[in-house]
TrEMBL record:
The chain crosses the membrane at residues 6-26, 111-134, 141-162, 174-193. Residues 41-159 form the VTT domain. The keyword Nucleotide-binding does not apply. One of its GO terms (cellular component) is plasma membrane. It is found in: Cell membrane. Keywords: Cell membrane, Membrane, Transmembrane, Transmembrane helix. This is Membrane protein DedA, SNARE-associated domain. Pfam families: VTT_dom. The keyword Transit peptide does not apply. Belongs to the DedA family. It is a multi-pass membrane protein.
Length: 218
């Protein structure tokens, strides 16, 4: 992440905002890219005054919402065969097991999977295409998509920005400690939502296991 932050710091602010929106947007379409790493790195740069936090957050939210919407349209048109092709191209991220788990969670929890999926790497990539392939009504998808994108983008950016500014003020001579605190704060900012998403996924696994047990053995 430090290398990403160093690379981003060499770019003009306008280009950096476009990079943030582009990487997160492409990731949201269904292509595995380090969107969260780019957002965290950019938010830390905002804490040092290199870029403005409101523009970092706006770019991230726009990329998330637009990218998911494009992914939804592609998924609706291509259906499950498209998801399977993506799985063959990116087997470590979107293989059959990952796709089955995401599809089960999505089918069971609907738009809540879209909202919480913004905070989980697998669902962040698959939410848009999967919603389209499952023919979720677009209006419902858009509401959950926009809410999740805004909370994730602005919450992560401003929490990291605030902690980074405090760390810079109080730990001027221990820059590594300030960076560590900022990273920990970024992880804490999404802890509850990730925990909730994992709880939903665990419930899916438990339900699936229960369904496999013969009625006479229950």
């Amino acid at each position: 992440m430090v290398d990403v932050q160093h690379w981003l710091s060499a770019l003009p602010p306008g280009v950096l905002y476009l990079i943030v929106a582009g990487v997160i947007g492409v990731e949201s379409m269904g292509i595995p890219l380090p969107g969260e790493i780019v957002l965290v790195s950019s938010a830390l740069l905002a804490a040092t005054g290199v870029v403005e936090p409101e523009w970092v957050a706006t770019a991230a939210a726009a990329g998330a919402i637009i990218g998911d919407s494009v992914g939804y349209a592609v998924g609706r048109r291509g259906g499950r065969p498209l998801l399977q092709r993506l799985g063959r191209r990116f087997p470590k991220h979107l293989g059959p097991a990952q796709l089955a788990r995401a599809e089960q969670s999505f089918a069971r929890h609907g738009v809540w999977a879209v909202f919480f999926g913004r905070f989980v790497a697998l669902l962040r990539i698959l939410a848009g295409p999967l919603a389209g392939a499952l023919h979720v009504p677009y209006r419902r998808f858009l509401v959950a998509n926009a809410a999740g994108g805004l909370v994730w983008a602005f919450g992560t950016t401003y929490l990291l920005f605030s902690v980074g500014r405090a760390a810079e003020h109080w730990l001027k001579d221990i820059s590594w400690a300030g960076l560590a605190l900022a990273v920990l704060a970024g992880l804490a900012s999404t802890w509850w939502l990730r925990r909730r998403a994992r709880h939903l996924e665990s419930a899916d696994v438990a339900d699936e296991a229960a369904e496999r047990v013969p009625a006479g053995d229950r």
